[in-house]
Amino acid sequence: MSGENGGARRPRLLMVGRTRYRLPLPPWLAKKFDALERHVDYRVLASAEDGSALETRRFRLLPSARPRALDGVLFYLRLPFHVRRQIREFAPEAIMAESPYTGAAALLARATIRGPKPRIVVEVHGDWRTATRLYGSPRRRALAPLADAVSRLVLRRGDAVRAVSPYTGGLVEDVRGIPVTATFPAYTDLAVFADRPPERLPDRPVALFVGMLEYYKNIDGICAAWRRVTAQLPEAKLVVVGKGSRRALVEELVGELPEQVEWIESLPPEGVAEQLDRASFLLLPSRSEGLPRILLEAFARGRGAIGARAGGIPELVHDGVTGVLVDPEDVDALAAALLRVLADRTLAERFGRAAHEVYESFHTTPLEYAARVRGLVEASLREAGVAPGERPRVLIVGDREYGGGADPALRALREELDFCALGRAERGTVPRPAAVGPGSLQLVRRLPVLDSPFFYGTLPFRVAALVRRFRPAVVIAESPYLGFLVLLALVFRRRNRPSLVVETHGDWRVASRIGGSRWRVLVAPLADWAARYALRRADALRALSPFTAKLSEREAGVPPVEAFPAYIDLSTFTERPPAPLPEIPTALFVGALERSKDVGALVEAWPRVAAAVPDARLVVVGRGALVDLVERLRDDFPDRVEHVEQLPPSGVVERLDDATFLVLPSRSEGFGRVIVESFARARAVVATRVGGIPDLVANGRTGLLVESGDSAAFADAMIALLSDRELAERLGRAAHEASTELQWSPDDYAARVRSLVDRTLAGPAR
Known about the structure:
- The protein is α/β, with parallel strands linked by helices.
- 42% of the residues lie in helices and 17% in strands.
């Protein structure tokens, strides 16, 4: 039956596709199949190029039909019979169909046989719906409803689905309702493109297009935009490589602009590499793409790209980093992008350098590709539709805001977990729906009124839906209250119920007593019961500090499985050495202007401080319900008190450098992030002895601690540092030394989260 590979049995795989092959295979393609033979016992059923042999030990190719116009239709009509024959002759354990349409033939063939039935693995290389809308003859659109129905059926009935990119995985998720089994790109032999260092950009600005001359490649948009470019930049040149049904548009453009446009119908890989070396960048404003091979080839040659904000293109072309993204239907924007990059050689060079770095991360060897195929097949044989990887699947539920910027911690978590995060969108932004899948963010829109009731009221339903669609092994709730709502979401789930981890970031009781509106105290007893219930029913607990660990253990009766802080990105605070203390003694407060931060104690203490240190200043950064207290204090001391509502991290760095120390008169605190940031800038802290603050601030060494509510003692501590520069410097140096122990990388954080998940799955916490 199947051969052996180092003592391990190879699964038997039939690969079915519409791809045209010429036998014998060219050397670059033979590498792929030689590697596959080491991992799977395979046979390929596909189309033959004209003049090719039709059969070898591994290949069964179907000749083109006559008349040629009916070749595609006849291929798909005959394919189920050919697949059925191969099932009987080859007896595959799995069939890998390279598209939903070939998958339909495989499912139909399997339904007609008796005996053992192979698993069907469906591949998705792009948006399959474009085949009847953007490709070939416009008459194909008449088949779109039927084709869509067939593809939906195939994706739902297939035993496993493989996507080539997160974009295509999201498309499948929307139809299938569960994530794809695996995501990895097709093997691309880039040896011709990577066998030598990238060439310098040409002296003449040149844009290069390589691809089919079809509607989906936006040939009409390219031609229209180029006419506008040449009117303003006559020295620019466009090179078009490809053939297709829209060749007349290119021929017309060449006729109009023979000095600015060159058309080449076909090139081997070596010729494409040469054209890339002669170009300033690649042009790819497609209306639909999966994971474009030509982009990887361009990146390998150190060329950036102007691409469309469509399909899988944005996964490679990062706007402003490796190129420029435009709307494929916006000809003006495309022309503007062309003019911008063609006229700025420095910009094109920067895009090219960044693109080459991205290529390094996408480069895949034949053996790596083959190993992934084997893993995919074995996963489909183990259990239909279940993602195989070694990484646990985790749903993270929190009420924190996620913005548009890249989060280093989330990037690191992707290497350890297949996670999906549920949270809030930043204020003022409208989140775009994202497909449920590994690495996705499911964001809830902020409302101008009733924001919190809407978020928390709908959370159990959102969690229940995500558990059903994402199928996590573990759900992490970032507070006991969220843990209670997750338990509500899971109350009717009996089968495949995920484990629950409840995190304690601070004293949860504060939220209903000294946080937000004073009316919250009315729900305190109910809130306390809900938090206690979640802590006791959780499968595992995680704390951020020794203080929060004691709180959760006291309520739950068992210690947390893990205790480690959240990841804090201190890059902005550590990118340059700390500045010397300012000449004017200055105290800085950074935080929410709420009762939990005891802003009233700071306001009460400041008049005494101002009288004792006449040149001292106070800077308050923050906003909240107690802003009126700060505004009145500023009115009383207009030249010595400053209020800033909000600052980015870089602004906080500047304010810390302009301060003598940080003040934090909190009534409750879990893990003070701003303390760590202050230490990183070599600034001591005057704070209250509450919550997790003593876990960070060593009294008399890295700062001064006083009892909460004692405004006189707080004023005395501030006076001590404002009037004694030497003391402030000594405490600041010690704080900076301590900060090195509090800094850890995103990878360190992700490893701890992975440990938490693994220990949760290993057994019950109690």
